[in-house]
Amino acid sequence: MTSVKRYSPLPGFRLAMGYTLVYLTLIVLIPLAAVGTKTLTMGWEAFWAAVSSPRVVASYQLSFGASLLAAAINVVFGLIFAWVLVRYRFPGKGLIDSLVDLPFALPTAVAGIALATIYSENGPVGKLLEPWGIEIAYTPNGVLLALVFIGLPFVVRTVQPVLGDLEKEVEEAAAGLGASRWQTFLRIILPHIAPALLTGFAMAFARAVGEYGSVIFIAGNVPMVSEITPLLIITKLEQYDYAGATAVASVMLVFSFVLLLIINGLQGWMQNRHAKGA
Amino acid sequence: MNVQESLAGLLVGALLLGSASAAEITILNVSYDPTRELYQDFNAAFGKYWQAKTGDTLRVKASHGGSGKQARSVIDGIDADVVTLALAFDIDAIADRGIVPLDWQKRLPSNAAPYTSTIVFLVRKGNPKAIRDWNDLVKPGVSIITPNPKTSGGARWNYLAAWAYALKQPGGSETRAREFVGQIYGNVKVLDSGARGSTTTFVERGIGDVLIAWENEAYLAIKELGPDKFEIVTPSLSILAEPPVSVVDRVVDKRATRKVAQAYLDYLYSPEGQEIAARHYYRPRDAKVSAKYAGQFGKVNLVTIDDTFGGWRYAQKTHFSDGGIFDQIYVPGGKR
Amino acid sequence: MSATIALHAGSLEHAETASTREPAWVRVVLISIALTFFAVFLLLPLGTVFAEGLRKGWAAYVAALVNDDAWDAIKLTLITAAIAVPLNLVFGVAAAWSIAKFEFPGKRLLITFIDLPFSVSPVISGLIYVLLFGAQGWFGPWLQEHDIRIIFAVPGIVLATIFVTFPFVARELIPLMEAQGSEEEEAAVVLGASGWQVFWYTTLPNIKWGLLYGVILCNARAMGEFGAVSVVSGHIRGQTNTMPLYVEILYNEYNYAAAFAVASLLALLAIVTLALKTLVERQTRRQLQEIIEPSGE
């Protein structure tokens, strides 16, 4: 439907497009360009020193590592959520369906203090885990936990509609041909929802890498151990190191942009597959 | 401030501070973390004093945060009439941008620090890890909470106090001090970005065996959260922490508030101001007030930053700049 | 990103037949996992906020909310949302109109740019305005000379909020308007309607639910933003503290009960947001079905 090119007789293109571009330029492009130009004034060596010092690299490892892991965890649980929401009936389903988006609607600072309270050594869940030697709050586990929390809706909400669209007949045919349920899942269902899972994964990952509010309350913020990259940017600012902060920010920006291009590509792929299937 | 004002303000890209009311003077005190309670009281007292003296109503607004972050705000243009920060280096950083004159510390008595404090330990009730002095902190299995010296002013005092202790021990040397402080940070469990964050971690979250903290912060924690839970341990040697204050010249000249800002800081040195500071567990400069509150503070041998470390600029450069000694000795990466 | 997708989600249920049903134990296990995860990860934090807020009793709860500082924070949050949301609403409509109804080169790139604020770290969203308007920034000296405040004042907070909520309405409307096509609008033009008339009488009724959905999400984020606003705020009590910042301040003042009390207001906002969203989703689905069904498959 969208691939048909056509001449539009509708009015308002210039006005709408002009406004869009002006607003986009003022609010997004010029401010982001400030990061670029500030970085350019640094010179290559200073830039490289700022973005590759051990502490900065450790923060990338934590931010990207924990975000990857959190996104992977979300793929598993997100799929289970989407699956039970689409396929099963059980009490409380409507409530769960609505509240899955809570991490999206709850301000991150609120989520942060709530999670820190729950998972610290004397919090309701932290207390239960402590005898087992499991520490969550103020360790890298805390970072992971917060990132799993904020990433969950992304996977559920990408997979849910695709799973719902899956034609039952195909599964029935597979079953008729003697495939077990597990085989049907692996060979039929999983390939069908794979692009959606991947998209959800990428979106959860993108969000997690930049996340700040919910993480800082629960991470120990120990340099080299539990200090995420966004916090490091703040830390650099507080040490009056504007250039350093901007350099690290520019690395993150480039990364976000590339990730976004990948996500948009994935979504295009999903739509195409969808169009073919229908 | 109402909606129309804000809308109009946004449209022209401008919104003037303090335009809300003409009859009322407002000044902004940009301060560091642990002074919230102190300045809440002090602002009220000074407001009354100023009204009695001049008839003007005065509203002192406050902003609190890590000392470095607050100085950053001033550098980035927050309209602070006065700054009351954790250490001289942060005001030096402001002075380097020409916002206050370079000799700001000479403009007020006692290094422009109307009250002092020092660094002590807060431990759990009964002192289960038997922490008496700095050398108890490096024992294996002691878990320490202190903020990050790169971002927190208080944390820099903590670090320097530990350094000074090691230096003044028999056979103490730079090498020995470096090793000792490295061991202390090897035992640090959570390195928050500000002093207040560390206190929260220790007190509310129940993490760690000992909190290295401002003396005033430790007393406040006990007062607010119960003497049945914590004890203060005063080490044998600590550092004389001088949290300095200054009028922000560029702002007061523009806003024409120099007189009231200056009076505000002078009032900190008055007996009333000193009394308020002492009540909030800052060590007063005034001899009389000091004598009156002497009983509330532990006995401790104090060294100064100028004598032991050659002043803040030097200490900052040697210890806390990127690649400085702190960066060299602090290599956690898993060892706890 | 997520919003567009969530729009089409919902209870698209499947008829069960024996051959495509998992064994009972698998179903029980999967449902249990989902319910446990739900309880621990979503319900518990929400419950904690209210429980901690009320820990010192109802009177303390009310006292935490009814005082000048809290009130100033609430007001500032409302003002910020009241400016940011309408601006992004107008932008969203304009962007969706030009992207969904017209073909032009560079469309994908434009959409990617519009999406950008979604994936930029909130910290960077604040930093960029410091680099522009801070005293050391591009326009800083000029602004100081003319005594104009942006950073550490309401305009800075509003700008940072606009940035982080920038794509919400646009991203909601673009797929919706693309799905709807432009036949109705074209017919209206042929019948002699002016541009504004086409928009008001043809397009707007078609997109109103999607629009509302975008506004709800945009508003929730605008009121709840923490990272970006924190960088540009300066944390002046009663002046530049929004509710999320005020929560942090109270939390740092040992005032946990009060922090959670204010946080509970924000949690309430999240709940209302989700309830409205569920409602609007239902309406949108209905509308989408109306579009899809008459045209056939």
UniProtKB/TrEMBL annotation, chain A:
SUPFAM superfamilies according to UniProt: MetI-like
Keywords, comma-separated and alphabetical: Membrane, Sulfate transport, Transmembrane, Transmembrane helix, Transport
Domain ABC transmembrane type-1: 60-263
Role this protein plays: Part of the ABC transporter complex (TC 3.A.1.6.1) involved in sulfate/thiosulfate import.
Record carries keyword Transmembrane helix: yes
Assembly information from the UniProt record: The complex is composed of two ATP-binding proteins (CysA), two transmembrane proteins (CysT and CysW) and a solute-binding protein (CysP).
Entry protein name: Sulfate transport system permease protein CysT
Membrane-spanning intervals of the chain: 21-44, 64-86, 98-118, 138-156, 212-235, 242-263
Transport keyword on record: yes
GO CC terms, sorted: plasma membrane
InterPro entries referenced in this protein's UniProt entry, alphabetically: CysT_permease (IPR011865), MetI-like (IPR000515), MetI-like_sf (IPR035906), Sulph_transpt2 (IPR005667)
Subcellular localization: Cell membrane
Species name: Accumulibacter regalis
Domain of life according to the entry: Bacteria
Any one GO molecular function term: ABC-type sulfate transporter activity
Topology versus the membrane: Multi-pass membrane protein
Protein family per UniProt: Belongs to the binding-protein-dependent transport system permease family. CysTW subfamily.
Record-linked PROSITE patterns: ABC_TM1
NCBIfam families linked: 3a0106s02, permease_CysT
UniProtKB/TrEMBL annotation, chain B:
Superkingdom of origin: Bacteria
Compartment(s) of residence: Periplasm
Endpoints of the signal sequence: 1-22
Entries under Pfam families matching the protein: SBP_bac_11
GO annotations of cellular component type: periplasmic space
Keyword Oxidoreductase: no
This protein's record includes keyword Signal: yes
InterPro entries the UniProt entry points to: Sulphate/thiosulphate_BS, Thiosulph/SO4-bd
GO biological process, one term: sulfate transmembrane transport
Chief localisation class: periplasm
Keywords from the named record: Periplasm, Signal, Transport
Gene Ontology MF annotations: molecular carrier activity; sulfur compound binding
Family assignment from sequence similarity: Belongs to the prokaryotic sulfate-binding protein family.
Protein name (database record): Sulfate ABC transporter, periplasmic sulfate-binding protein
Organism listed in the record: Accumulibacter regalis
From TrEMBL, chain C:
Transmembrane domains' residue ranges: 25-46, 76-100, 120-139, 151-170, 254-276
Keyword Membrane among record annotations: yes
NCBIfam families in the record: 3a0106s02, permease_CysW
Gene Ontology annotations for the cellular component aspect, listed alphabetically: plasma membrane
Domain ABC transmembrane type-1 per the UniProt entry, residue ranges: 74-277
Protein name per its UniProtKB record: Sulfate transport system permease protein CysW
Primary location recorded for the protein, binned into one broad class: membrane
Molecular functions per Gene Ontology: ABC-type sulfate transporter activity
Membrane topology: Multi-pass membrane protein
Compartment annotation: Cell inner membrane
Protein task: Part of the ABC transporter complex CysAWTP (TC 3.A.1.6.1) involved in sulfate/thiosulfate import. Probably responsible for the translocation of the substrate across the membrane.
Cell inner membrane as UniProt keyword: yes
Keywords: Cell inner membrane, Cell membrane, Membrane, Sulfate transport, Transmembrane, Transmembrane helix, Transport
Subunit structure: The complex is composed of two ATP-binding proteins (CysA), two transmembrane proteins (CysT and CysW) and a solute-binding protein (CysP).
Organism encoding this protein: Accumulibacter regalis
